[in-house]
User: Fold these one by one.
Assistant:
Number 1:
Amino acid sequence: MTDDIAAGSPAPDSPSPTDGYVGDPAVRSEWDNRYADRHQLWSGRPNGALVAEVAGLTPGRVLDVGCGEGADAIWLARGGWDVTALDVSGVALERAARHARDAGVDVQWVHAALTDAVLPSASFDLVSAQYPALLRTPDAAAERALLAAVAPGGVLLLVHHAGMDTQHAHESGFDPADYVWPSMVADLLDDDWRVETNEQRPRVAPEGGAGAHHTDDLVLRVRRLR
Ligand SMILES: C[S@@+](CC[C@H](N)C(=O)[O-])C[C@H]1O[C@@H](n2cnc3c(N)ncnc32)[C@H](O)[C@@H]1O
């Protein structure tokens, strides 16, 4: 494993740079700008729902979708997981890779949008997506990509801020109809899947960082049976 940042696919020998990004350049720019605005955007601590849900799982291969500055990925790697972490923002990934080096853990970073990344299908024991800002498309590409990455016997854990999905569109440009929410993934499940958790619950929020004001989570945890 390597902490190099691979473009589009997890390629251990890839030199690094973030310029081989695959995905919509506008989405990349939007997130790069958001990260570049601040020295550190998120708390630097792992998400509470992830910590709670991973407690009973045996470490294996994990994909962290929309990994941001890498706190979850690093926490998982410290816990013995073989981590691939993916994000559209090169700014975030550079920070994440630096934090991983400082922590002395190996993570395979992928600079790509979820739906454009070349990922091994059905091969992750855990796919974790914590507050991912995945854009919705008519073919449900992001929802399907999340499910397709899970190995038989593995788990998809999708966590979002409760209440945002039912908000009205803001003047700021945020429209919940543009994004993928847990219910949309749940709607796609067939007999190959078992729902282990699908609920709203109080959030164990890491201290500090943007988004700390959100008090409740939507947690969808589903297991692929075959
Ligand atoms: C709200 S942040 C959450 C970051 C991190 N999971 C956390 O909990 O701190 C959403 C992240 O999703 C990333 N993102 C947005 N669209 C994406 C896409 N299509 N594929 C992968 N990552 C994406 C953004 O760059 C950002 O880092």
Number 2:
Amino acid sequence: MKQLKLKFTSSIKKSFFRFINYILRKLFTHDEIIELTNDLIDIYNSKRSFTWVPWNVDFYNKMFVLLKDAIIEGDYLEFGVANGTSFIFAYQAAQKFNLKSMRFYAFDSFQGLPEIRNIDAEVKNFKEGMFNVAESEFLKRLKKDNVDLSKVQTIHGWFNETLTNETKMNLLIKKASVIMVDCDLYESTVPVLDFIVDYLQDGTIIVFDDWFCFRGNPNRGEQRAFREWLKRNPSIKVSEFHKYGAEGNSFIVHIDD
Ligand SMILES: C[S@@+](CC[C@H](N)C(=O)[O-])C[C@H]1O[C@@H](n2cnc3c(N)ncnc32)[C@H](O)[C@@H]1O
């Protein structure tokens, strides 16, 4: 009965949206509809602690539909959380697709970027301390957006110090379903990729939010770290999943038995 009621409500909702769509297209031009949509998004964003970006929502939906359909169970690990924008997107998508057992791990210095050194220093847009958001501020934003904090664990510190076997023993992560790498720099990405190997399973999605940083140069940033890591770990195969936004890319991991 409950299932039937849900189906009925969702088909009424769909018909309602189709009707609104039809009316809007009759009354307004394409450009006017875009303008109206952008105004509505601005109003929505002004009420939230983070900026809602439609194309990111689309990407998160695709990712979580895949996890749901392929029954890939596991946790969400994000390396570089800053003020929690992508972390909250992931939490919300997991709730939307009913992935109730997923736990959420937030790794960050909570002091912003480290000193920019070596090949990372060749492009001038990154600065030490950039994206500095305190852990308390990050948690406050999560709370404001109704994230269940009992499902969240923060791992505070520089990756080259915290991403150790000792940390692994203290965390209850079995496998990862999504690994979000959003730490911008080559030197930050290297320890992240070495740390995640034990958590991979067939179907884990690895997301690189800064794939096309450094002018998209494959010898810099996350692209370089990923290529070198795949070379060090020949048993790990990947195929490209979706590109998103201006700089993001993602991959599905394949591990044969
Ligand atoms: C671009 S921000 C992350 C943005 C975030 N995912 C969002 O959607 O709002 C990059 C983050 O990576 C963290 N980070 C970069 N390198 C790090 C390192 N070596 N150790 C710890 N944290 C690091 C910074 O503190 C910063 O919060």
